[in-house]
């Protein structure tokens, strides 16, 4: 187990502590903990599902193919990745070996709940004004119950602590669409979601500053 954390722990202390996390079995087969990245305080926190193969090797979130498309669309939406905090609901890569490849495997509810311990601490330190749930696992972890992402996509739910959570898809969903026209349409939809996120974050900052 990682050492106990002080109440006023910094994000760097948290990241360091998570390196030795054994709260669930996922650490055993993964290369390393992939902790969140971004400024220690950020208006927006993006939460994905779990690191993928590339993230596991690099030790950084959203650097694989899904991260590339996320970065590109983030920029098109006018959001600066350097000013947002990006993390995952589950911080170790879960996979099934297939030959030389490691195929992504969805984390179960027990793993997601175990890792929520870290996400809750990230939220406490980063103090975002808006959280963005990228996919069902992130939405479940942030809201605390299963969320129908297809039905609630584009909507903002409010957590018990008052934090608004914008619901959308995980960018890896776009990559899995085979038909080029459908893929382009989904990309446009995700861009519209991120534009809405930028507006929602700007208006929440404005309302707080008024
Ligand atoms: S997935 Fe999360 S809870 Fe499980 S060992 Fe890794 S950091 Fe700990």
- Could you please say which CATH topology applies here? Uracil-DNA Glycosylase, subunit E
Q: Overall 3D geometry?
A: globular
Tally of distinct domains: 1
Which sequence of strands runs across the widest sheet?
A: 2-1-5-7-6
Enumerate how many helices there are, as a single number: 8
What quaternary form is this?
A: single chain
Largest sheet: 5 strands, mixed
**Portion in helices:** 40-55%
Distance between the termini: 44 Å
How big is the Rg? 16 Å
Strand content: 5-15%
What is the H-and-E element order?
HEHHEEEHEHHEEHH
How many β-strand runs?
7
CATH architecture tag: 3-Layer(aba) Sandwich
Question: Can you identify the CATH class?
Answer: Alpha Beta
Q: Ligands bound here?
A: iron/sulfur cluster
Query: What is the overall pLDDT average?
Result: 93
Brief write-up:
The protein has 210 residues and is of the alpha/beta class. It contains 8 helices and 7 strands, in the order αβααβββαβααββαα.
Q: What features would you describe in this structure?
A:
- This protein is of the alpha/beta class and 210 residues long.
- It has one domain: 3-Layer(aba) Sandwich (Uracil-DNA Glycosylase, subunit E).
- The strands form two sheets. The chain has a five-stranded mixed β-sheet, with helices on both faces. A two-stranded antiparallel sheet has the order 3-4.
- Bound molecules: iron/sulfur cluster.
């Amino acid at each position: 187990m990682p050492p106990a954390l002080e109440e006023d722990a910094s994000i760097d202390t948290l990241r360091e502590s998570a390196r030795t996390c054994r709260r669930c079995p996922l650490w055993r087969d993964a290369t390393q903990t992939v902790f969140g990245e971004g400024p220690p305080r950020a208006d927006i926190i993006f939460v994905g599902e779990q690191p993928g193969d590339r993230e596991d090797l690099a030790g950084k979130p959203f650097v694989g193919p899904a991260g590339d498309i996320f970065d590109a669309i983030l920029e098109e939406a006018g959001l600066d990745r350097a000013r947002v905090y990006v993390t995952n609901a589950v911080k170790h890569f879960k996979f099934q070996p297939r030959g030389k490849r490691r195929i992504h495997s969805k984390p179960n509810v027990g793993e997601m709940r175990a890792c929520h311990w870290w996400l809750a601490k990230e939220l406490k330190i980063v103090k975002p004004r808006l959280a963005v749930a990228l996919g069902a696992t992130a939405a479940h972890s942030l809201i605390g119950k299963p969320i129908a992402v297809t039905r609630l996509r584009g909507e903002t739910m409010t957590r018990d602590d008052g934090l608004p959570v914008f619901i959308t898809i995980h960018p890896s969903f776009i990559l899995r669409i085979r038909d080029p026209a459908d893929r382009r349409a989904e990309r446009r939809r995700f861009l519209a979601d991120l534009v809405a996120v930028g507006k929602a974050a700007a208006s929440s900052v404005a309302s707080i500053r008024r």
